[in-house]
Every structure is written in C-alpha cells, then in structure tokens.
Amino acid sequence: MTTRSTATRISTASRSTAETSVDVSLDLDGSGRTEISTGLPFFDHMLDQLGRHGGFDLAIKAEGDLEVDSHHTVEDSAILLGQAFAEALGDKAGVRRFASGLYPLDEALVEVALDLSGRPFFVWNVELPQAVPLGTPPFDPSLAEHAMQSFAANAGITLHVTLKHGRNVHHIIEAAFKGLARCLRDAVRIEGEDIPSTKEVL
User: Would 119 be classed as within a structural domain?
Assistant: First the structure.
C-alpha cells in the first residue's frame, strides 16, 4: 500500500510477501537525511547515496530471506522505492522533468540520463569487471542493474546508465547510484507550474 501527503511531496509505502517485508518513507523536498536497513550493508550504502545526493529524506527498512539469496530483498526494496517515488511526484506539475550528467568516482566515470516520462524504460550499458560479492551478507554486483531496472519500472521513468571508464566494481556501482541521485534531484526540481508535456500529462 502506498499513500501520499496532499500538502507536500511525501509518500510512504509498505509491502509484505512470503519472501520480504519492506517499509519506505520518502520526502522529495527533504535535506538528505537517511535511515536505511536492508540487512545488506553494501546495498544500504547505495540507497544512502540516493537520499543524501538526491537531497531526499529517505527511510527504508527491509527484512528478507537473505539465507536464500539477496535478490528478493534488493528487488522488493527497489520496487517499493519506485512506487513511493511515483506517488510523491503526483501529477509532476512544474518539475524540470529531464536531467543528465557525467559522474566520476576515482577511476570510474558513469553517464546517467533520465526523463520523468511516465513511460518506464531502462537501458544499462555497464559491463562490470569480474568481481566477488560485496559486503557481508554478500551483495551480488549484478543486482545493481536489477535494482535500477525495478526502480525505473515502478517510478515510471526513462533511465539510461552508461559506463564510460572504470575498473573497480564498487566505484562503478557507487558512481551510478550517485549519478542517479543527482539526476533525480535535478529532474524533480520545481521551476514552474505547468506539467512539462505537450500532452499535458506525464
């Protein structure tokens, strides 16, 4: 279930399945405060980047069947975050809509471009070097793609992520999450009153 405050761009969402239980709260006009707990320290670190660099107040609490795999926890957290993001945006009146940029982290350089289009589409041109899982319990680096895809699909955005340079898997994934955060921050910024579409709906 997802709910939105009509006065502000705030939403809360909850989801429980046989595999996971996830709660999310999101304030698009916050100050970058985060409280993240998924049981996967590396994934927590990436979600923290979204809140801090996006300028959002973000809380996520997830409990999942990590004894089986980290996939369910990552996927369901990203799904619910995407739903909360879409709900918080509302009708998108006045938002900038588009954002893009190049984002470095040491040797890694990632390009991110997005559109709050209402039409979910995801492109991931990121070939990760072979790497062992990150953190304990382990986070499979390949789940970074799945997390972003699940988020984009449920947030209703068009998202392109392209690796320009990089050798360190941690750096590549973190640059991608930071780039996503900064682009979301720019795209949701209010700079007018109208819905930025000739269709007058997004």
Answer: yes
CATH of the domain at 15: 3.30.230.40
Structural domain count of the chain: 1
Rounded-to-integer distance, Cα 167 and Cα 10, Å: 38
Task: Please determine, for residue 94, whether its predicted confidence score (pLDDT) is greater than 80.
Answer: yes
Q: Which residues contact 128 (CB under 8 A, 6 or more apart)?
A: 141, 142, 144, 169, 172, 173
- The side-by-side arrangement of strands in the sheet containing 158-165 is 98-105, 108-115, 158-165, 121-125
Find all residues with CB under 8 Å of 63, minimum gap 6, and list them: 20, 21, 22, 39, 73
Q: What is the pLDDT of residues 48-78, one digit of tens each?
A: 999 999 999 999 999 999 999 999 999 999 9
**Tokens 């107040």 correspond to what residue?**
57
